[in-house]
Queue: 3 jobs
Job 1
Amino acid sequence: MSASTSDVVVTGLGATTPLGGDVASTWEALLAGRSGVSRITDEWVKEFPAQLVARLATEPSEQIDRVRARRLDRSQQVAVVAAEQAWAESGAADAGVDPERIAVVFGTGIGGALTLLGQDDVLEEKGPKRVSPFTIPMLMPNGPAAAVGLAIGAKGGVHAPVSACASGAEAIRWGLDLLRLDRADIVLVGGAEACVHPLPMAGFAAMRAMSTRNDEPERASRPFDKGRDGFVLGEGAAALVLERADSAAARGARVHARLAGAGATADGYDLVAPHPEGEGAGRAITAALRDAGLTPADVGHVNAHATSTPVGDTAEASAIRNSLGEHVLVSATKSQTGHLLGAAGALESVFAILALREQVVPATANLDDPDDDAAVQALDIVRDEPRKAELRAAVNDSFGFGGHNIALVFTTA
Amino acid sequence: MTATDSRDTVSRTTTSTPSGVVVPSEREDPTLASTQEIQAGLGEILEEVAGVAPADATPEKSFTDDLDVDSLSMVEIATAVEDKFGVAIPDDQLANIKTVGDAISFIESNQG
């Protein structure tokens, strides 16, 4: 793990999540074991089998001004909130970086669903002339990336990977590539999602992908547990500032961790079902390790994708066991945050980075009775309370409908 | 009274002005709004849509150059004007409305 000029480091973090309106409050709530999940009380939910949601802890309206917010979809609002936090923390705005060397890669799984569906209501009820002129820029899936690019004045390219629940992690991988290829000097990356609305809820429920443990909201998201019955939809965003190690050092930036490598694969198996042994997921982890020049023994922690679906969690457990072995400490933080879809990979990368920085592994909530699956039984899944550990490298893996697999390897600063 | 003359007298009266200021589009026989009522109503729209302080929404101000109102916001303003004053602004006319005063004049001469 020797330093070279092509090393990429993380110099800023931002987030707005069901656990907190920023990184510090989110991390504190995570370690304290708090849940961001609650039961929806709106009238529309009555006929829904799955009635749980992990809503933002802090409304974006408390963080960005009204006039700015009204022309941004909620997915763009959370993107901007997280991105501006990360950007401010990095100090990059004062570093005199040429705007043409600043890039943005920001993903989303669903895009501006609330705008799309809300304006469809307007169309049906009031006609085409009443549809907002901001409809298209608010619903387009590159909307969060574009809003972030505008917010920080990035002129070196603004990109928007769309790979369902791998989008946030894929954005981080693209950012790494841009820096390695010298396409930019600083890249703000992340993911955003805000699609709590009857239609996405109904669609996921129709796939039987969501937990129906409506009477126990805080116990509903239970990755790797025998009693798991689906994910809980969450909303929020997370952002990271990436730059090359040499330029970060030259400007005296605080380095949270190194982004040492990334791997991307596709299952080539089924549109939505994971390969039963997580074959593509395991290949992504192996590819990321190779990219980072590390071996499985170097990796001490995995922040797992683990959404709490019956088939997904066991497939991932096999992938982790097959690619890394049984020594890694595994956390499934969606047990507290819910599933932030296109923001998940970014948020969980923030958690992996903080675990490295603080040398503590978050616990997996609600893991009362681990699944009988051999890989789940074999893995050391941290539960009950966070565990202190000497960590040199941590992996975040993220998977998306479509068979997308992304693995990222972070190492200590 | 010209539009310019009226600006100081209406800037703080928008909330307390009687119902005549707001003329719902569905109203069958709208009461014609006075110049100052139009300016006040337009000010409310500009504040809602673009965050323009009411005191800044004076007739000589250019939407794009002075008030930072972009073309998409102008479309929203036109829709809101139709709701408030019952005056539709065709696209070819909207392009000619450069200042707050232009908008007031258009509404004034096309209402009723």
Job 2
Amino acid sequence: MRLNYPTDIRIVRVPCTGKVDLLHLLRAFEKGADGVYVVGCMEGDCHFNSGNLRARKRVEQAQAILDTIGIGSQRVQMYNLSSGEGPLFAQYATEMHTRILELGPNPIRAGRREAA
Amino acid sequence: MIVADRKPVEEIIEQIKDHDNILILGCNECVTVCEAGGKKEVGVLASALRMHAMKAGRDVKIDEVTLERQCDHEYLEEIRDRIDQYDAVVSLACGVGVQFMAEKYHDMPIYPGVNTTFLGATEKRGLWTERCQACGSCILARTGGICPVARCAKRLLNGPCGGSSKGSCEINREVDCAWQLIIDRLKALGKLDEYEEICPIKDWSTDRAGGPRKVVREDVQL
């Protein structure tokens, strides 16, 4: 299964999506990421019971904050799949990549250049 | 504990719009437990404010510090040597901490980052409910451990009003009738006869009606 997906995605491995904190998501944007998506196990299948449900809540919190400060909630997204769904992983990567291309770069990068 | 709720980020952005060096000051006590003003919330707010400033092309310095408490001199003193670097502080402590901070650092603008709400308990994560109004003269011994001052909308002291229906208060079906709870508990304790005792007129001078209050303990003062 030699699947292709966009190369400008950086994967950060975590033991469970429950490890992903709201602060991690916000810091990624603060450091200039154009988009962040979290890929967790199927809901109901978490080895730690509620890790992926916690991640979803945190993604929703990040979306609310990004909307408030004008960066846009579409730049952060939660996805769920099982470990056997490689094609879906590639599909989500492409989907997110296309969305970010449409949205353009993280607006704080333009602001930072202006300040400098 | 003192329960607080986060202020909308937009409101804080508006408050600090004229400042370029800002300290976000959290508190490790009550507001940490109710997830409104602890180290985590300081980080989240600071990150949001930094991003908002960067997006607007402003060069704003926003630092994060969380003190053990903001309602004690010794902890507030911990920032004395660095407070001068900032031109404003957003305190995520309760109203007590914000005011104590303002008293101690008289020339520094202090903005509240939370809305202090009530004295309450954590029923479950994300749900805090009021239990005490700090009336200064506790009557819980007579009311089965359930406070009619805090939990009855009318603060009635001698049984429910006519608005009590099937255990709910007339102001909202989701609010328990405090007196129904009291009677149920007195029954469970086998003390229902105490319900018949008339509660005398309460001395409200210990409540807020008597103005700002103080507790003086000369036995512990040095």
Job 3
Amino acid sequence: MLKADTIQKELKLISEAVADLPNTTPFSVPDHYFDGLTSRILQNIGQFDAEEEKDPILSPLLQSLQKENPYQVPAGYFQQLPLELNREQTTPVVQIFAWKKIIGYAAAACLAGILFLAFFFEKDAAAPSLPVAQKTDWESQPLSTESIQTYLMESDQLQPVETTDPELSSGNNLLVDLTPTMISEILKEIPENDISSYMAQTGGNEMVSLN
Amino acid sequence: MHVLSDHNEWVGQFKKGGSEKEQAFTKIVKHFQEKIYWQIRRMVINHEDADDVVQNVFIKAWNGLDNFREDAKLSTWLYRIAVNESLSFLEQKKKREAVSFDDVSDTLENKIHAEKGFDESKAIWKLQLAVQQLPEKQRIVFNMRYFEEMPYEEMSQILDTSVGALKASYHHAVKKIEEFILNG
């Protein structure tokens, strides 16, 4: 009873009200229940073992029924089934992963292009060049006398362009042979105001040269 | 110590097999049946339910005793099976009640009300009603300590819980019961 005393003391420390309650169970058990319990348990275990050993028949009714399938299949279904399966196999297979390859190649090409451009511009920037202002203003720079003389000498050395036109190739037809009659006719077509203003500007010498 | 050596002897006989196996098991069942029954009965309340669970416990013991290691106590091992079977029985019952909405009256409290000789004015019955208000784990701890006067060390082995946690659980359970008795 030492154990019970310890438990009772512990209980009193927690709650005196509960410690004062009886610690018996009020539930009732059928008469002689425990007398037959052992044999019933062993009987159940014996049955359990026997059922484990032999193949158990859960339902003799189901056992007696025929195991035929009541469902029906369309005529010739199983003959056509292999053909259907073969047809499915011949359908073209679209490779989903081909896009991945294309994307990979495109990315590699872009990268190579970027690297090439970067290398090109870096090289160009490193090379000595004229300032931008000088490049744009070259037309306004006056040409030196030496460069003009060199150009004229070189142009004299150039061969004349051959042409198939006989008049142009003779060179004599460049001057127009004008008679006094033709000149007077031409002058008739020009208004007198224009002639007098021209004469005033040139002092009448040009008329001689025209002839 | 004499009892413990008896337990080991029964287990040894059982493991030998043959005719000795059933004799040894008969001794084990006769020795433990009442303690196991009452432990289960306090959990499931109803006698028929308790009887089913007791049968299951001893069938499991029969199947597992060959693998029982004698470094543990036979009583501890059997109590552990009984606790697990009781909890799984209550769990299945809860699931069935959740599915069947008509079976709401089949609670543990109603089962106590339906017990033979039930009288709510008597403290012994009021205590049972109070115990049913506890969570399952606290109920097991309270029953083992209060009714079966089990040491915390043995409870610790059965429930696989530390002694400190069991003491705390018992303390909470007693306080809840006190509140129910005084104010309920």
